[in-house]
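Exam revision sheet. Question 4 asks you to relate a sequence to its structure. Input first:
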Amino acid sequence: MLKMMKGILKGKLESPDQTSSGDFLDQVIKDMKTEKFLNEDFIVKVLFGLLFAISDSISSATTLAFKFLSDHPAALEELRAEHEAILRKRENPDQSSHGMSINP
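Answer key, structure tokens:
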């Protein structure tokens, strides 16, 4: 994974005009010119850390939500009631707020 990230970074460094998309990595590359602590190894390790932190945060939050709801059945019932009220207000209860069908 680190080799792949390093390859992407090197590609952007070697041909910034062809690969520039205005994303986070492009900004970091721009900042490399003024910030001495930013080097290729540091950037790759930070990007890897961000990927891990994001995925860990989502799974931890989901796990904690399920634990909370299982420990507090009244909160689960309140959540269900709120969800049912939202569905009743819709013209078509099988359609999400974005117009996508909930049931295939």
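Marking note for examiners. The helical segments are 2-14, 16-19, 24-31, 40-71, 73-89.
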